[in-house]
Amino acid sequence: MKSLLLTSLALFTFFFSHLAIADYDRNKAVPVEKVLFGTVISARNISQEELIEDKNSGWKTFGGALIGGVIGNQFGGGSGQTVATVLGAVIGGRIANNNSQGQTVVVRLVELMIEVDCADRQCQQYMVIQDYDQQMVFHNQDAVRMVYLTNGNVRIDKQF
């Protein structure tokens, strides 16, 4: 049971981490719609919790109730044995259900408020939330670029 849960968690983490990485790969050219340059006004690290649901929780609850009923059937006699069987099934199902509620995964994100460089017109501000990258930590007054990809996604990178 634990190995199945750990395998599911590892697969979800791999799948989700692949989605959280930049929308372009290293050494691969992708079309860009536009690029805006600006300055970070505020940067805040945030986290988001996601619940990974166990798809087999119904079967686990049924299995727990079945095992609990078999164990409960070993005790008592007559109507006492019936009560013990039912009680064992209820307790077994409850324990199995509580152990298969799912796992919580914390996803690290960064919230950026960016003021776009402007010349003669009024400056605009944009709020962007993207995955946290420990190789690119943002601070106030950092010069950044907003890369608009043709698939509709936006990525913020530091100007170097």
Automatic annotation (TrEMBL):
Subcellular location: Membrane
Domain of life: Bacteria
Name of the featured protein: Glycine zipper 2TM domain-containing protein
Assigned keywords, A-Z: Membrane, Signal
Transmembrane segments: none
Keyword Cytoplasm among record annotations: no
PANTHER family (alphabetical): OUTER MEMBRANE LIPOPROTEIN, PTHR35603
Signal peptide per UniProt: 1-22
Matches recorded under InterPro entries: Bact_OM_lipoprot/Surf_antigen, Gly_zipper_2TM_dom
